[in-house]
Structure formats: structure tokens, C-alpha cells
Design a protein that fits this description.
This protein has six helices and three strands. The protein has helices at 7-28, 35-46, 52-59, 63-75, 97-117, 123-152, and strands spanning 50-51, 79-83, 91-95.
């Protein structure tokens, strides 16, 4: 079997191209963030004050890469770390005013990128595509998330 003719190749290609397109739009709008940083920030826009460990689990990255991302975002004034009142060893990550103001710009870039992905799809095809992607992700989440959680607890 040739990888370039498999479902895995198409998923990988779509993910890569979508990330590149989103990075392009985020750069054009002078957002100062990347598509990976958007994934982290989207969790904070939903619920501010999350631990670095939870953010790592939510975005499926290891603790070190999340720490690097947060350091970069903190350096450009988008997030801030505040020590947890009950456990000073744990940092809670909060959005700054600049980080909150970035949300509509970033989401607009995401919407434009997704519109390109689904160009020529009708409403039913978009709904089916989304359902199939959710089902595929749901098949992997229990396995992958348990692995990530066990690595983070070490």
C-alpha cells in the first residue's frame, strides 16, 4: 500500500494545508500568533485561568512545548502566568487585555480558512464532513488522551 493513496495521507495533507493557510491569514492580520498558539488560546477564550497541564492535555502537546508557547505568548503580552493560591508550584494562565482583543480577529481567520476547505460543499456535505471528522477524532481520543495524561503525571 502506498501512503500517498491512503486516508492518512489525505488527513495529514489537509491538516498541514489548513495550518499553513491559517498561519498566512494570522500573519496578514498582524495577530502575532500561529495556528498552534491559536489552539492554546481558544481554550483560554472559552475558560480563562487554566493550568499549563490542562492546556497541554486540551491541545495534545507535551508540557515542555506548552511551556515554550506560553513563554512566547507572555513575552508578546497575550497571556500572563499567575501562581495558584492553593499551590504556588502551579501556574494558572490568564489572557491579558491584548489576548482578549485578539479573539475576534483570530476567529475570523479560522472562519476564512474553513470556508476555503469547504468551498463547493453544500450544507449537507459540510455537516456530514464535520460528523465524520468528529467520529474519527472520538475514536482516537480515549487512547491518545490517556497516554498524554500518564506522561504529564510523571
Amino acid at each position: 500500500m502506498q501512503f500517498d493513496k491512503t486516508l492518512g495521507k489525505h488527513i495529514t495533507s489537509l491538516s498541514y494545508l489548513l495550518s499553513k493557510q491559517l498561519n498566512k491569514l494570522l500573519s496578514e492580520r498582524n495577530s502575532g500568533i500561529t495556528s498552534d498558539q491559536f489552539r492554546l488560546l481558544s481554550n483560554l477564550w472559552r475558560k480563562d485561568g487554566i493550568t499549563q497541564q490542562k492546556l497541554a492535555i486540551y491541545i495534545g502537546r507535551d508540557r515542555a512545548s506548552v511551556t515554550r508557547m506560553i513563554t512566547i505568548l507572555e513575552d508578546i503580552g497575550i497571556v500572563t502566568r499567575i501562581a495558584n493560591n492553593t499551590d504556588k508550584r502551579v501556574n494558572l494562565i490568564y489572557l491579558t487585555k491584548k489576548g482578549r482583543e485578539l479573539e475576534p480577529i483570530a476567529w475570523q481567520c479560522v472562519q476564512e480558512s474553513l470556508s476555503l476547505v469547504t468551498k463547493g460543499f453544500n450544507t449537507e456535505e459540510i455537516a456530514l464532513f464535520e460528523q465524520l471528522l468528529i467520529r474519527a477524532s472520538d475514536n482516537l481520543k480515549p487512547v491518545v488522551c490517556s497516554t498524554i495524561k500518564s506522561k504529564l503525571s510523571k
